[in-house]
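Much of our argument rests on the idea that a fold can be written as discrete symbols. The amino acid sequence and the backbone structure tokens for this protein are reproduced below:

___
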Amino acid sequence: MSRGLILGVGLIALTLLVLICIPRHLPVAASDAPRPAFHVSIEHGRLTLTGTVGSEEAKQAAITRAQEAAKTAGLRVSHEIDVAHEGGTAEWEQALPALIAPLTTLQHQQATLSLSDHAVLLKGTASSGEAKSRLLREVASLVGSAVNVQDQVTVATGSSVAVAAPAQPHAPHPSRQQTQAGLDDILRSEQIGFESNSAVLTPRGRAVVDRLVAVLKRTPEATVEIGGHTDSYGDPEYNLQLSRRRADTVRQYLLDHAVTNPLTAVGYGSTRPLSQERTRAASKKNRRIELRVKEER
């Protein structure tokens, strides 16, 4: 009996040990890792970024784009962004930087953009029904069909538009020189990028043109020439055609984003280089798109 008792007690102790120790060593399910989720808000003159993204590159791209958009809209920026290295990448993450600028078109008392898994929620007040429709179309085109855009955007009444809009209805438009300076500042900081030997804009290229949209909309009467330029390598005729197609691409992108300025697209090929050096850096500098505000006649 004594021996049986000892065996029984030992079996009970072993069972308790298994119950206590094994759960600690079980692998954590992948679904427990934090999923990318993001929140962009504009309130009281501040643009705030909070949430989780899947990479350090996505975090830095969002911060940089927010700073650019905030400068254009006259906002301050704050951010608190975490990186979830094991949580995967959300469907909207690649489009996140480009999504920030459209939010600034809403009235600045309170506007929010919330992103989680396969959904994007927009909330705020647009200055008109046309502005709301344009915003929703732009967001939908950026995130793609796999992401559901949830609309909680209202349209301002006539009494609130003048108070909330960033610019007063009767404020004078910027001068030709001011518009040109604004365009030059953007293109000096970053060129409009295209796929190699193609007239297809890269994602970063589209982000640069998005910044140009905001400048041009403040001076809708300004006539603008979009000039395409290439480096000197390759067939001159091919370069001339490529530069024209790239200028046409930028012109069409601006028109698709409700820019109403008179726009012309011109291809110069390699005939107007900024540098005569035969180096990689010089070639990159010569491959460019320029926007020139035409003199009034």
Q: What stands out?
A: The first strand starts at residue 37 and ends at 43. The chain is about 45% helix and 20% strand.
